[in-house]
Structures are given as C-alpha cells and as structure tokens.
Specification:
Helix content: 25-40%
Order of helices and strands: EHHEHEHEEH
CATH class: Alpha Beta
Oligomer: single chain
Number of domains: 1
Strand content: 15-25%
CATH topology: Rossmann fold
Bound molecules: 1,3,4-trihydroxy-5-OXO-cyclohexanecarboxylic acid
Shape: globular
Length: 148
C-alpha cells in the first residue's frame, strides 16, 4: 500500500519560516520522519510539495492511480481552495488534513477549512510530530493496525 504526503505553499521554507510557529524541522527532516514511520507501518510513502494550487490538484489526481490515501498539509490553500476540496471529492481518496500549528488558536481566517468536511479527520498543533501521527491514523482508517 502506498500513501501520499502532500504539502502546499511555503512549506518548502520550513525550518527557516517562522520557527516559533512552525518549528525548526525542515521539510527534508519531515520527509525522513515520514519514511521512517511508513517503514514501521509497513507502507510505501510518496512525498511531494508545491507552491501552486493546480499542481496540488494534479498530484491528487495522480495519486488516484496508485495511492490508497493522502496526508495533506495544504498550507494557506486550506482556507481558500474550493479546487482542492473538489479534487478530494472527485478522487474519492481518504485524506487526513494536517497542520503543524493549531490553526484554531490563531487568526480567525485560519479557523475555517475548505477541506475539513471532505477529509476523514484533522490533525493540527503537534508540529512535525503530526506527520507520523497522520500516517498512522490513515493506515488505521484504511484497515491496517496503524501499529508497527
Ligand atoms: C499550516 C497552517 C496554515 O494556516 C498556513 O497557511 C500554513 C501552514 C500549518 O501547517 O500549520 O502555511 O497549514
């Protein structure tokens, strides 16, 4: 079973970007943690990032062919993108919405998610540790044990 971990705009700058909010881990560190978690869970993982809304839609469409589910940190597109919401509905892929920060404890415009209602669940506020948690939750949702 293969899972996609998909990251949206500005997440390529993790480590340098507002570390007080998003932590000191780089996206490469997070990818390494995801690969380690995937191995422990007995699944394959594909890891991708784009700053472009349409490229994220394309990645979801492509995942339909060979991935069983998606961990999606859509960044700011979470709060604005009907296109991403429609792509999740259109593909029918189970998606775990993920945020490093607790978006509900931040500005009001971050409280609303366009994609939460079409996601199987949301993990927010646990920093980089949220990624392995999301992979485990996705595997459990898909019928695996979610345990090593
Ligand atoms: C984020 C939260 C979003 O509100 C923000 O636009 C991001 C990162 C997070 O991981 O906490 O880019 O998705």
């Amino acid at each position: 079973m293969k899972l996609l971990v998909l990251n949206g705009p500005n997440l390529n700058l993790l480590g340098d970007r507002e570390p007080g909010i998003y932590g000191h881990e780089s996206l490469a560190d997070i990818e390494a943690a995801c690969r380690e978690a995937a191995t422990a869970l007995g699944v394959d993982v594909e890891f991708a990032q784009s700053n472009h809304e349409g490229a994220l839609v394309d990645a979801l469409h492509a995942a339909r062919k060979d991935c069983a589910g998606v961990v999606l940190n859509a960044g700011a597109y979470t709060h604005s993108s009907i296109a991403l919401r429609d792509a999740i509905s259109a593909t029918g892929l189970p998606v775990v919405e993920l945020h490093l920060s607790n978006t509900h404890a931040r500005e009001r415009f971050r409280h609303h998610s366009m994609i939460a209602a079409v996601s199987v669940g949301v993990i927010a506020g646990f920093g980089a540790a949220g990624y392995p948690l999301a992979l485990q939750a996705l595997v459990t949702h898909l019928g695996g044990s979610g345990k090593p």
